[in-house]
Design goal:
Elements: E1 2-5, H1 12-22, E2 25-31, E3 39-45, E4 53-55, H2 56-62, E5 66-74, E6 77-90, E7 95-104, E8 115-117, H3 119-122, E9 126-130, E10 135-139, E11 148-150
Parallel strand pairs: 3-8, 4-7, 7-11
Antiparallel strand pairs: 1-10, 2-3, 2-6, 4-8, 5-6, 6-7, 9-10
Length: 152
């Protein structure tokens, strides 16, 4: 299965500028449990992130439980970071991520995403980024299960 994504735009130049400014974004639903409905957000695919992260303010608003605090090295330095448990559902690619998510200060005032989908997410896909055309692709090997659990 190969799915192509990219910002809305009529021409490749317009899409390319949007992709460069926003990054590769997917629509996600973040929720506390399988039986509770979640809220729609946007998740940024971050090839440099060693873990999947959720914005701290978003996690608090959704009532995601904190199960631990861990030292974590991010672009802003090393900090003691809450670790939340929850679910990120990415219907566009048929994946539901159950597990632990590191808290992050994603600066929601300036960003348009509420979670980072890092290498644990990407490890199950072939990811291609076509900057000139303004699109990115996620290909899922046919042997892949449509359900993933990530534990750090």
């Amino acid at each position: 299965m190969i799915k192509q994504f990219g910002p809305s735009g009529q021409h490749s130049n317009e899409r390319s500028l949007l992709l460069r400014s926003e990054g590769p974004i997917l629509d996600v639903v973040i929720k506390k449990s399988k039986i509770l409905s979640g809220r729609n957000f946007r998740g940024l695919i971050d090839t440099g992130a060693s873990v999947n992260c959720i914005d701290n303010m978003t996690a608090r608003k959704l009532g995601l439980p904190i199960i631990d605090y861990k030292q974590f090295q991010s672009a802003s330095g090393q900090n003691l970071t809450p670790v939340y448990v929850g679910i990120i559902d990415i219907a566009e690619v048929g994946i539901e991520i159950l597990g632990q998510f590191y808290g992050a200060e994603l600066g929601l005032g300036t960003k348009s995403y509420h979670c980072l989908l890092g290498r644990p997410f990407l490890s199950n896909f072939i990811f291609s980024y076509d900057g000139p055309d303004g699109v990115f692709q996620l290909a899922q090997p046919s042997t892949m299960k449509a359900h993933m659990a990530f534990d750090e």
